[in-house]
Amino acid sequence: MRKPLVMGNWKLNGTKQSVSDLIKAFVEPANRTAGKVDVAICAPAIFIGTVESLAKGSSLQYGSEDCDIHTKGAFTGENSPEMIKEFGCTYAIVGHSERRGYHNESNEYVAQKFKAALDSGLVPVLCVGESEAEYDAGKTMEVVNAEIKAVIDLCGIDSFKNAVIAYEPIWAIGTGKTATPEVAQNVHRQIRDFLKTFSSEVADGTRILYGGSCNAKTAPELFSQADIDGGLIGGASLKAPDFTAIIAAAEANA
Ligand code: PGA
């Protein structure tokens, strides 16, 4: 069945010292739970080389928080999927709501990032989720399905055999307002139903993570839901005891 994935997303946080402390703290739980849970950290690009050397030989996986659509060229400030792959990354987050919002990334542009990551041998982690206004207006599935459909249109449904979806309601990110397990499960099930309209095999196999103020307290119940296959963890992945507890919650439900 689907192996749970607990992925940290450090965003724009960290120092050489904190990166070293946190990666050292996560290697042990990642190794201990490796048969049951995948554990990964997505770090700012400038720290990925450090993460690579600290995680070497361990079961701790890692990835980038974003990637460009190009392989190389005159695109100042960007990081290509090939570069990311060369540093041993397994994953690349694409379409995080902070990228969609602050950098005006459209569904079609995110789909191109997804394709670029996949073409380079990375596992894209496609973030989807609605704003508070869209949630209140009952538009969650309209928004989320459109974000997924843009990828299916460009890459085909089978591309999700090598990808992960993270449902992150924007109103829950960094706000302390976690979606209740029932609300989250309901959306995750509907995402799986949507995938099923294209392929039952892909729908059954695709890992769908929950993200948005997921922490050591809320993770156990969230992870016990049938269609929640782990979490994309922001703030709590910057605290070793909290992230370690979240890994344990995933292990308990694996
Ligand atoms: P949060 O962030 O856990 O701090 O809410 C999650 C995310 O944005 O990936």
What does this structure look like?
The structure is a single chain. Helix content is 44%, strand content 15%. It is an alpha/beta fold and 254 residues long. The chain has a single domain, classed as Alpha-Beta Barrel (TIM Barrel), CATH 3.20.20. Helix 1 packs parallel to helix 11. 45% of the residues are buried. The mean pLDDT is 97. Bound molecules: 2-phosphoglycolic acid (PGA). 2-phosphoglycolic acid binds next to strand 8. The site of 2-phosphoglycolic acid has 13 residues, from strand 8.
Helix content: 40-55%
What characteristic shape results from the CA principal axes?
globular
Uncertain runs are none
Ligand kinds:
2-phosphoglycolic acid
Round the mean pLDDT to the nearest integer and report it: 97
Annotated CATH homologous superfamily = Aldolase class I
Using the 3D structure, state the CATH architecture.
Answer: Alpha-Beta Barrel
Largest sheet: 8 strands, parallel, barrel
The CATH class turns out to be Alpha Beta
CATH topology: TIM Barrel
Count helical runs.
11
Strand order of the largest sheet: 1-2-3-4-5-6-7-8
Sheet/helix structural class: alpha/beta
Strand residues, percent? 5-15%
Order of helices and strands: EHEHEHEHHEHHEHHEHEH
Count of the domains = 1
How many individual β-strands? 8
Question: What distance lies between the first and last C-alpha atoms, to the nearest angstrom?
Answer: 9 Å
Rg over CA atoms, rounded to whole Å, is: 17 Å
